[in-house]
Amino acid sequence: MIKISKRKLKNIKEWIKFALAIVCVVVFAVFFVFGIWSPIKQPVNVIIPRGASITGTANRLYNNNIIKSKDLFYFSIRMNGGKIQAGEYEIPRGAGAWTIASMLSHGRVATTTITIPEGFTIKQTKNMLMNMPFLVGDVDCNTSNPICDLHDGDIFPDTYRIARGTSRLAVLDLARKKMIDVKKSFDGAKYPSPLKDWNDVMVLASIVQKETPLKREMPIVASVYLNRLNINMRLQACPTVVYALTDFEGDMHGAPLLSGHLKIDSPYNTYTHNGLPPHPIANVGRDAIRSVLKPANTKYLFFVADGRGGHKFSRDYNEHQKNHDAWREIKKELNPSLRSQSRDK
């Protein structure tokens, strides 16, 4: 058995302590250099274009004072797989070379959300996307791809999480594919009389969507229009006239809908044409679709705004006229200029 003197044992312990101290210093230095040593005082966005080289990216990051050392960045990229991915990145405050390299190597791009409101038309949606600077590209194309021939009813209004720098056509395609999935979820549903196919359902759902934002009212509004269709009564839905007047945009931008507008010559004008319009007049959510497939059981044929965000429903024209007169009085109270106009007449 080998005996170690107390003095040697003490020396060994001292060397072990010294070695551990060196290791700690090295670990701290590595941690500092790769994790803490950063010139970034505030979050910064960095766009890496397609085809960008590691060298070119390193030079750009260094010249913009985002990294302290190109060599450390090269080493960090190699340790993370040796590649970088294109996209827009939101580099957090205090990010070191390792964090930045890891983000670029694994494609942890900056994301955002886009909400396509229920009731928006294709034109409104495209205009909205064109005003979003974090997207790229155009909203129109001329190939045989389905995304180049969108019609109202083809996309699903929803909130979508996407990477910054996503193309606008890709966003539209995402919403188009979601609508396909939504349609499949209603496979097997029975269409209420006199609706014959899915297009009929979507057309009526789009009218309901434009008539009321209230989920609880949608089945009642749907019942009114179904009741009218079943007795061959014209729908006389104002949103269809607006759709025709605005060249399918569906927004009057604050301008009033006048009685003369109701005479516009268009297959979408349900004041002058019987039955449903040929295609949907907006993009619709699930609630509007459900309201058409499962309408309320009513005998209502008319409805008018009640001044509180909803509507008053009636079975006959006389009752409807009373409700309409009440609505006129409410509008006069809300808009004093209407009272003066009434007195002048």
Question: What are the salient characteristics of this protein?
Answer:
disordered C terminus, elongated, mainly alpha, 3 domains, two-stranded antiparallel ribbon, 6 strands, Dna Ligase, domain 1, 46% helix, single chain, 345 residues, 12 helices
Structure description:
The protein has 345 residues and is mainly α. It folds into three domains: 20-106, Endolytic murein transglycosylase (Dna Ligase, domain 1, 2-Layer Sandwich); 111-185, no CATH class; 198-344, no CATH class. It is built from twelve helices and six strands. It has helices at 6-36, 54-63, 70-79, 97-106, 122-130, 168-185, 198-211, 218-230, 238-245, 286-293, 317-334, 336-344; strands spanning 44-48, 87-91, 111-115, 159-163, 302-305, 311-314. α8 crosses α10 and α11 crosses α12 (336-344). The protein starts with 5 loop residues before the first helix and ends with a helix. The model is unreliable at 23-35 and 338-345 (pLDDT under 50).
Biggest beta sheet summary: 2 strands, antiparallel
The topology string of helices and strands comes to HEHHEHEHEHHHHHEEHH
Characterize the overall form: elongated
**Number of structural domains:** 3
Short structural description:
This protein has helices at 6-36, 54-63, 70-79, 97-106, 122-130, 168-185, 198-211, 218-230, 238-245, 286-293, 317-334, 336-344, and strands at 44-48, 87-91, 111-115, 159-163, 302-305, 311-314. It has 345 residues and is mainly alpha-helical.
